Amino acid sequence: MNKIETLNLKCTLTDEEMLAISKEMSEHINKKKQAEDNLSSFSAQLKAEVKGHDAIINKTATLINAGSEYRNIKCEVIIDPAHDTVSWIRSDTGEVAQLERPIPQRYLQTQLEIDPL
To answer: Does 112 have pLDDT greater than 70?
Structure first.
């Protein structure tokens, strides 16, 4: 009785097999390159997103530590010649934001009203 066994032996590839394997390898090289490009793009997007969050975190941490920030607030200017002062009153709180003594020259100039002919 003949017994059959399977052995793992070296075989030379045919031209058709070489062509098929080359095509498969080329496909996977292209797919790998596309995946790497996608990874780089996605990684760059995520890095930019993280950087944006870091900027906001740093800004808000600074505000919390300082407990204040500078804002543009409209102020009413009150010129008081009797006390030789100019006061700026905050429109948001009604507090005196700034007081100058003596009255600065720019506030001492008077406007002349000229009637048109």
So the answer is: no
